[in-house]
Amino acid sequence: MDRKVKVAIVGAGSAGLYAMSEVRKQTQDFVLINGGELGTTCARVGCMPSKVAIQVSEDFHRRHVFSRYGLEGKETLSLDTTEAMEYVRDLRDNFVDRVLSNSTDQLPKENFIEGYAEFLDINVLKVGQQTIHADKIILATGSRPYVPTEWQQQFGDKILTTDELFEQESLPPSIAVIGLGVIGLEMGQALHRIGINVTGIDQCQNIANLVDPNVNQVAVDTLQKEFPLWLGHPAVITPIDDMLKVSSGDKDVTVDKVLLSMGRIPNLETLGIDKLSIKRNAKGIPDYNPNTMQIGDLPIFIAGDVSGDRPILHEAGDEGRIAGYNAVHQAITAFQRKTPMNITFCDPNIVSVGKLYSELDLDTTAIGEIKFSIVGRAMIMAKNRGLIRVYACKENGKILGMTMIGPKGENLAHLVAWVIEQKLTVIDLLQMPFYHPVIEEALQAVLYQLVSKIDSPLPAVLSLKPLANHI
Amino acid sequence: MDRKVKVAIVGAGSAGLYAMSEVRKQTQDFVLINGGELGTTCARVGCMPSKVAIQVSEDFHRRHVFSRYGLEGKETLSLDTTEAMEYVRDLRDNFVDRVLSNSTDQLPKENFIEGYAEFLDINVLKVGQQTIHADKIILATGSRPYVPTEWQQQFGDKILTTDELFEQESLPPSIAVIGLGVIGLEMGQALHRIGINVTGIDQCQNIANLVDPNVNQVAVDTLQKEFPLWLGHPAVITPIDDMLKVSSGDKDVTVDKVLLSMGRIPNLETLGIDKLSIKRNAKGIPDYNPNTMQIGDLPIFIAGDVSGDRPILHEAGDEGRIAGYNAVHQAITAFQRKTPMNITFCDPNIVSVGKLYSELDLDTTAIGEIKFSIVGRAMIMAKNRGLIRVYACKENGKILGMTMIGPKGENLAHLVAWVIEQKLTVIDLLQMPFYHPVIEEALQAVLYQLVSKIDSPLPAVLSLKPLANHI
Question: Residues of B with CB below 8 A from A42's CB?
Answer without folding.
Answer: 436
